[in-house]
């Protein structure tokens, strides 16, 4: 149990619906092991600070943050993991170079106003350099030139020269400011340097495959998209030759840059991530060091930033609808780039996706997950507390004789506050007591187990105090189910579970292990996503005519209870097939399960989990570097090297990473497409009842301050949930919510 109650219910419940994908971290309850000052700092985001931060960022930066999930996913493609490890087979790299070459060649063939120049690499560099030198005042429009320059990455070795520069009056009009010309000049230099290095690549590794290589569908799809955008075939935009005003020309330039910027930015990101890995391990020579150096170098990073700056400048005068178009183009380009990586053929054993090695005929995969703050945005104890307070009678309100006697809302609020503070203080003291005098030099599971036995005694005592206090009396089962159905889970959690369940070939089962007091809340939360088949192992409320008595059927209260449930599941489902286990958790209560599973994944950054684990020799490794290391150790034809009790746990920041690692990027992309691009908010908004009075919703949301203009919708969701919970309760007084 992680008990927390915010003294202002409506302001707390709004954090339940804060978007886990927003660039600012969602407001979260004080976690066990977190200091009160830290929690206060997280919660006190002022309006002026937030708006100021947003105002200072250009759209390129905002789009990159918004779609950071996609950029992270690119790292988990088998091609990039193998490339990062240095064991990517040379034939695969040559195939990649060939596809990249044809990408730009096809682009040129589809544009009649541009003539592809055939030449050897050395000759081509000379022609390109001379062309730039001759055109001291080039009449290239910003959108056309930027499109081609941004496209000319390392392995795209075709240079295109306009056959008739003087024909493009559009170019002269759009490139009439010094800043743009300076930026274009820098991009030219970057392209020349990239071409020089690509020439050395071809000399070192050969390029015969370029001639015989056939385009794959991902390359064609990406090329067609860029061609259509640069040609003005964007919804609401006139085509080339019909651009009547300089503003329309600039708008088309912005659209084109919106489609090209992710390409530059993503390669810069991958280059820097791979370079960081190489810097941490300089003991061995990396086969593709030159490739990494190119994209990690200061000049390429600067070119990527310069491209973003151009996009920002071109977008300054655009309307909100036009910026939305750029955002869609940006997102589509990001997804197409990931598909391009996914399409690269690999003829070697890889560690991703994890279930690639999983043979359903011989193995059974068991996925285990915690619930509170692993699947959810807030802890379930806080949700139950808020329901109890909101639905409790006021102090001056009489109660029916046949009803379970309940505390008033004011008394409930005070009691929850006392319990919350006591739990937080005593939990921190317990953590201090269980640590050894000296930190373990190596992984010490037995010592960790004994320490968590002491923590288990504390957790059970805390639950006893909650039951004895009577704060859980009188909760209606239907209210709990409604709250669960509208509970927003962490972004990507539902998609991951759905992908496993819908694929019968995986032979996988999902088990949720939780300290949650009420299993009905968990089941209803997952049932709204069509996940009724999940196996839930949690505590249960005792009901009398669908109203909670305040008692709990205790099943999973502590770290020891969790790991015992984990072991029992494996024992009870023992068969001839070999079990392969994955556990996903976020707190110190998950430590034993995380370590006993074949793969333990830590979601988030719990300070108490890391502190206790590190003290007993547990290593916490970011998942991507861990996979690269595993790939280096991968021996063709060998069995899986994932084993429990290794003392190593892998850390991630999102369910998207988990999905990409276990099931693969392609499965993740297909799942996202099936969802039609709906955000988590849109998904839950679509399920809310439309029968409530609008004035009631407004009355609730007026009590909530929210620093971001676009996030007021979350407050609407909060209001609707509260109204639906209390729709049959005439004693609910909205004015009490402000208090």
UniProtKB/TrEMBL annotation:
Residues of the Thiaminase-2/PQQC domain: 78-110, 254-341
Pfam families assigned to the protein according to its UniProt record, in alphabetical order: TENA_THI-4 (PF03070)
Family matches, as InterPro entries: HAD-like_sf, HAD_sf, Haem_Oase-like_multi-hlx, Thiaminase-2/PQQC, Thiamine_Salvage_TenA
CDD domains in the record: TenA_C_AtTH2-like (cd19368)
Any one of the GO CC terms: cytosol
GO-annotated biological processes: thiamine metabolic process
Signal sequence segment: none
Transmembrane segments: none
PANTHER family hit by this protein: BIFUNCTIONAL TH2 PROTEIN, SI:CH1073-67J19.1-RELATED
Identification of the protein by name: Thiaminase-2/PQQC domain-containing protein
Species whose genome carries this gene: Rhododendron griersonianum
Lineage of the species this protein comes from: Eukaryota, Viridiplantae, Streptophyta, Embryophyta, Tracheophyta
